[in-house]
Amino acid sequence: AVEARLYAEDPSRDWSPQTGRLHRLAIPDGVRLDTGYTDGDDIGVHYDPMLAKVVAHAPTRAEAVRKLATALERAAIHGPVTNRDLLIRSLRHPEFTTARMDTGFYDRHLPALTAPSPDLHAPLAAACADAVGRSRSRFGGWRNVPSQPQVKRYAMAGEEHEVHYRHTRTGLEADGVRVVHADARLVVLEVDGVRRRFEVARYGDRLYVNTTALTALPRFPDPTTQHAPGSLLAPMPGTVVRVAEGLTTGAPVKAGEPLLWLEAMKMQHKITAPVTGTLTELRAVPGQQVEPGSLLAVVTET
Fold first, then answer.
1. CA–CA separation, 249 and 260 (whole Å)
2. In the prediction, which pLDDT does 92 show?
3. Which of 131, 160, 273, 281 could form a disulfide with 298 if both were Cys (CB 3.0 to 4.6 A apart)?
């Protein structure tokens, strides 16, 4: 038997714990799932971020490892960022499959194991599902005039992606692929002669296309959401527990210098100056509760 522990944490960002609504947690049959969470539960800041233990049994270690990796890959996990991808890649890494790993495994391989690998067709699948789910008029999705390309924007793996598609008499069309089927929950695209299925789930502006998470963006960016260079944003929800002694607006700071500390899920996280310069804004105060993306301070480079 092999066990994997699923955590609401981001290994690529210093293992920072994640919070939010767990919309869905579903593991394929054939493995054991031990969890105290159900769909719709909120992951808070006051407890350990472990969501579940997943256990696979098989006659041999190699079979159990493959079975566990496949189950995690096919699982539906809709909610905060988790270590799911790290677990899958670790289970399939040659050092693990041949039982040659040691305590330095992540010291050597963590950057490669946590590198983003989103499905580049996920934004188009999301757009097709949205286009079908929201009929443009009571007459259907086509008109008796040439259709102009429709545009959708999504954030995926830290980057913006823009996709284009068209409504036609026979359905949706997009360059480079053939839209075989599209409804609000399932899109089938033919890519280079191969048909691929994309299961789509949407919760507000957040979408999950198979295992890829996306955020639907407005067609035109909101200028009020832009932050100045050198802005320090809260990487997670938590409490400001400390501000560096003597730190005030106008103080000089050096790149990497600790400025303040957040506490979440029984762990403290240090926020450092991104550049050498001057602290031009300080909004964080001890005891303050902050949400992800909250502006804590601004350092202007000199």
1. 13
2. 98
3. 281
Q: How far apart are CA 164 and CA 123, in angstroms?
A: 10
Rounded Cα distance, 247 and 259, in Å? 7
Closest to 10 measured CA to CA, from 209, 226, 237, 208: 237
Q: What is the DSSP letter of 295?
A: E
Tell me the C-alpha distance between 144 and 142, whole Å. 7
Q: Mind listing the domains of the chain with CATH numbers?
A: 2-113 (3.30.470.20), 122-217 (3.30.700.40), 227-301 (2.40.50.100)
pTM for the whole structure: 0.75
φ, ψ dihedrals at 227, nearest 5°: -115, 150
pLDDT for the residue 147: 59
Position 223 scores a pLDDT of 54
Q: Is 157 helix (H, G, I), strand (E, B) or coil?
A: coil
Q: Which whole number is the average pLDDT over 144-168?
A: 85
- Scored b (16 or more CB within 10 A) or e, 270-284 reads ebebbeebebebbeb
* Pair 215, 130: CB distance under 8 Å: no
Phi, psi of 224 (to 5 degrees): -75, -15
Dihedral, CA atoms, 168, 170, 175, 176, nearest 10 degrees?
180
DSSP annotation of 116 reads: -
Give me 271's structure tokens. 């926020």
